[in-house]
Specification:
InterPro entries: Interferon-induced_GILT, Thioredoxin-like_sf
CATH architecture: 3-Layer(aba) Sandwich
GO molecular function: oxidoreductase activity, acting on a sulfur group of donors, disulfide as acceptor
Keywords: Glycoprotein, Secreted, Signal
Signal peptide: 1-19
Pfam families: GILT
Oligomer: single chain
Radius of gyration: 17 Å
Helix content: 55-70%
Structural class: alpha+beta
Number of domains: 1
CATH class: Alpha Beta
Length: 219
């Protein structure tokens, strides 16, 4: 429950940053719901960088595999207004179950009825098939170059970057300007390890408490 709430908290902090005049890095993440390695990547590598670097990313998520959670995420990617809403939803649902759909989507400004219609109907199946074919295309391209496909796989500007699942922040930051690196990346990058600033941690604690109170989980 607390991990799921943590995913939703990203949305509340996301709007604290601006988006004008920044370097854009094209990133496509191929992943699978409930995959332990994907969950580890999303929570330990991707999510700490999403808040400070989201406006530097042209992000695309590609859920892979024929399962209910991937279908739900695919419908969210299609129908949510943007990745500010998609990311916390995916992080909340990633290692959960389809029954968590309402909980994970609850605080988000999205059309719940439209999401459920997609999930329960043919549209969701079609979208999931498109994601499957996109992943298979990447697999075929890698095979042609005698390269292996891993889950998760992270593609920067059309090129698969092996090892980015353990050094995601570093790979993004090295593609930014020096000024952007100084303003954003130094907070989080120290000898290749993610560092969570004390100020951000304090803000997260406050948001957690406020969120729990609003959900009547605290007396």
């Amino acid at each position: 429950m607390l991990r799921a709430i943590g995913g939703l908290l990203l949305l509340l902090l996301a709007h604290l940053l601006g988006a004008d005049g920044v370097t854009k890095v094209n990133v496509t993440i191929f992943y699978e719901s409930r995959c332990p390695y994907c969950t580890m990547f999303l929570r330990e590598q991707f999510s700490p960088y999403w808040i400070p670097l989201q406006y530097n990313l042209n992000l695309k998520l590609v859920p892979y595999g024929k399962c209910a959670l991937n279908k739900i995420m695919t419908c969210a990617i299609k129908h949510f207004p943007g990745y500010n809403d998609v990311v916390p939803f995916v992080l909340c649902l990633q290692h959960g179950s389809p029954e968590m759909l309402d909980f994970c989507a609850g605080p988000l400004p999205v059309d719940h009825a439209r999401l459920k219609t997609c999930v329960d109907g043919d549209e969701g199946d079609q979208l999931l098939t498109e994601m499957y074919h996109e992943t298979e295309q990447l697999i075929d391209e890698l095979k042609a170059r005698n390269e292996k496909f891993y889950i998760p796989s992270i593609v920067f500007d059309g090129n698969l970057k092996v090892g980015a699942d353990t050094k995601f922040g570093r790979e993004v930051c090295r593609r930014l300007t020096v000024a952007e690196q100084n303003n954003l990346c130094d907070w989080y990058e120290c000898n290749g390890q993610v560092q969570r600033p004390k100020v951000l941690f304090a803000v997260l604690v406050l948001v957690v408490v406020a969120g729990l109170k609003s959900m009547s989980l605290l007396s």
